[in-house]
Design a protein that fits this description.
By secondary structure, this protein is of the alpha+beta class. It contains three helices and eight strands; from the N terminus they run βαββαβββββα. The radius of gyration is 17 Å and the shape is globular. It starts with a strand and ends in a 5-residue tail after the last helix.
Amino acid sequence: MEITHKHIEKKFAYDGSQINPSWAFKTFGVKGSSIITWRGAMNITPDNMKDFADVGLEIKGNEMVHFMSEFFDIQPANIRMAYMRQRLLVLIFKEELAKMGVKSTRDGDDIFVDGAKLTVSIASVSISSMKIHFAFNIKDEGTPDVLETIGIFELRNENGELVFNEDNLLNFVNNVVNSFIKELQTIELDISKTDVL
């Protein structure tokens, strides 16, 4: 499966509308399966709320890194597969944090560091595609008061040193995306070389 990654330098907010089908094509002309990454605030409007458990809650942050994935390889789109891929992305993100010396824990599709929530995520489907939004806080600013949150620029390694900054953030994002794409593509290759009964 071919997957295009495009990082958008211009900052803009995630309001939930980006999870609508073919957003990458309509907005940036990116055809086919894709992962769009960018920085920006998050404030999901009630009409764009996809998770029934989140209705009435605030889902926001002043600045985050967003990953918006869309896949067209399975028709009709399968929400179970969408959530499986979402979990895979979350696990890869956790693995990449560990490579940087950051210990984290996972609860479903959420990543925590020292008990503070670092990420948000949701999966959804349309008639034609599977969508995954995943994002992490850059700083612990503008997040809901009812949650203890943390930003990636506040993460420290076992020596107490700050791990992330403006110089290495984009490289980290690219590592997460590239590892995710590689995992999906090697699954396809493994399927193609397996002798089935």
